[in-house]
Amino acid sequence: MRQPIERKSLQDQATDWLREAIIRGDLAPGSTLTELALTQQIGTGRGTVRSALFALEAQELVTRTPYSNWRVAVLDARAIWEIYSLRSAYEGLAARILAERREDLGTDLIAKAFTELDAANGAGTDARVAADLGFHASFVAQTGHQHLIRRHGLLADKMEWLYRWSESHWPCRNPLVDEHRPLFDALMQGSPDRAEQAVRDHIDYSITQDIAGFNSLAAGKAT
Q1: Going by DSSP bridges, is the β-strand pair 70-72/32-33 parallel, antiparallel, or unpaired?
Q2: pLDDT tens, 16-35?
Q3: Looking at residue 5, what is its pLDDT?
Q4: Hey, is 70 helix, strand or coil?
Q5: Cα 53 to Cα 64: distance, rounded to the nearest angstrom
Q6: pTM for the complete prediction?
């Protein structure tokens, strides 16, 4: 059945355009954003662009210096650690809830998302991003914990932004299935402690890789 046409205001469309440009790396982390240039790129009025910038400032993808300029948020070692550590807290809690109540909550969303990792592994960045982040979202959604689901969802853009940044430098760095299997096994049959620890181990590994990668890139630019 066809879905109804989604109606969006010009502001929503401008916000979506700018969000995608940032997340996909078309606008580099830390780069200056001018309202005049964006009006020409997006094709909307300056007021619409300004509203979009304020919307993305609230999502912490854009920063503003009062009476000065707008910039894409900085992606550095601290930002990488903060995004991942918050993700670890949310997903660790989700894993614990799921393991404690597995019989009541089920695991169908997780099993389906895990099967999608294999097909995405040899595909392009878009497919890998969708499958990887989809797997992590699946076990949060499986809990049915609405407050947790919403707060995890608020991190989605930042997680995709960071993932795409990593993929742009080290594409297909890790096989998706092999990387996620220990986490999958713990979610499907592990104790609450094991499930939560599996999340933290998985994300700690990503933190280590991406911060090391960032430092390596930064050192290369400095020479």
Answers
A1: antiparallel
A2: 999 999 999 999 999 999 99
A3: 47
A4: strand
A5: 9
A6: 0.90
More confident call, 109 vs 69: 109
pLDDT at 4: 53
* Contacts of residue 22, Cβ cutoff 8 Å, sequence gap at least 6: 56, 61, 62, 72, 73, 161
The answer to whether residues 137 and 199 touch, using CB atoms and an 8 Å cutoff, is: no
Dihedral pair phi/psi, residue 167, rounded to 5°: -65, -30
Q: What Rg value do the Cα atoms of the chain yield, rounded?
A: 19
Mean pLDDT of the chain: 92
Rounded to whole angstroms, what are the CA distances from 173 to 81, 121, 127, 129, 179?
19, 10, 14, 12, 10
The answer to whether 18 and 42 are in contact (CB under 8 A) is: yes
Tell me if 143 sits within 8 A of 149, measured CB to CB. Answer: yes
Beta strands in 53-104 (DSSP E): 62-64, 70-72
